[in-house]
Design a protein that fits this description.
Distance between the termini: 31 Å
Number of domains: 2
Number of helices: 10
Structural class: alpha/beta
Strand order of the largest sheet: 1-11-8-7-5-6
Strand content: 5-15%
CATH topology of the largest domain: Rossmann fold
Bound molecules: guanine
Number of strands: 11
Shape: globular
CATH architecture of the largest domain: 3-Layer(aba) Sandwich
Order of helices and strands: EHEHEHEHHHEHEHEEEEHEH
Radius of gyration: 19 Å
């Protein structure tokens, strides 16, 4: 049977459309639209592109977008003061501080300063704890998008073997918790894992989040596995080209004959992240306003 190439862009477009439909009901109930503040420190080119895209998507969904830029040499206290201001601003429902922060910033301290009820990245200690405890957490956008796509494709995930490769706070760790809650048998693999191919060969679900171009080879995968590739890696430029191709953590062409379904890069996992950010902002706005969570998300 031919493998299914999962269309992350179409999935995200559907999610964004449902969010845009839910905004007017929130506005009718509260007299305002949800607001998302994004903070970018420094001038990393890739981060600037992401932050611009987040702002555009927020406005397109009918929400309010606030963008703050600080220079790379700003003082840590200046950033903490901005976070405190956003925490106190009633028109801001979501706060995202773009990571990584430039050298010299204490990332853990900045993250811990974000109001957990506005933490649309799900990375404050409070939300990480809520997720582990199975309480109502805000959950990091990329793993949330992966879970939604898996449910869309497979329905009930109970009893499936899931292997996550990578243990970052924004992806691997929250992904493991979500899959555990969905009754998967979860294995977390990482750069020190011995014999990764043997670990992967038992996986019904593979989540790749290691940031190594085409690291996972096709013959490491079990026949019929579902593979979600969160990697975004740029290859060195081919001769005569200014820029290299963007590839994932999985050797896509090799994997295709082995798998039941796989996300492409680009156009797979990455495409869903911003839609999930809007979803989290909508949910945070409802909870902060004392309303029930919006239905269907
Ligand atoms: N940098 C890359 N992805 C993300 C994300 O999802 N959230 C934050 N805060 N920074 C990022």
């Amino acid at each position: 049977m031919a493998a299914d190439v999962i269309d992350g862009k179409a999935f995200a477009a559907g999610l964004r459309a449902r969010i845009a439909k839910a905004v007017p009901a929130f506005e009718a109930a509260t007299g305002r639209v949800p607001g998302l503040a994004v903070v970018l420190v420094g001038d990393d080119a890739a981060s600037q592109v992401y932050v611009g895209a987040k702002g555009k998507a927020t406005v397109a969904a009918g929400m309010k977008s606030f963008e703050y830029r600080l220079p790379a040499d700003a003082a840590q206290d200046e950033l903490l003061a901005l976070v405190a201001r956003l925490n106190a601003d009633p028109t801001v429902d979501g706060i995202l501080v773009q990571l990584p922060l430039p050298k010299g910033f204490d990332e853990k301290r900045v993250i811990a300063a974000i109001d957990p009820d506005k933490d649309v990245d799900g990375i404050t200690p409070t939300n990480a704890g809520r997720l582990v405890l199975g309480a109502d957490a805000l959950v990091s956008c990329t793993p949330l998008g992966c879970l939604m796509m898996l449910r869309d494709l497979l329905g009930d995930l109970s009893g499936l073997d899931a292997v996550i490769v990578g243990r970052s706070i924004l992806f691997g760790k929250p992904m493991a918790q979500l899959l555990l809650q969905a009754n998967c048998t979860v294995t977390m693999a990482h750069s020190r894992t011995r014999d990764l191919p043997a670990v992967l060969r038992r996986a019904d679900i593979v989540i790749a989040a290691i940031g190594q171009p085409e690291y996972i080879r096709g013959d490491w995968l079990k026949a019929g596995a579902v593979v979600l590739d969160g990697g975004i890696n740029r290859l060195p430029p081919a001769p005569g080209k200014a820029k290299g191709r963007i590839v994932g953590d999985v050797a896509f062409d090799e994997a295709l004959p082995h798998v039941r379904a796989i996300t492409p890069v680009p156009g797979g996992v990455g495409a869903t992240t911003i839609a999930c950010l809007l979803r989290n902002t909508l949910v945070a706005a409802h909870r902060r306003a004392g309303l029930a969570d919006p239905e269907g998300f």
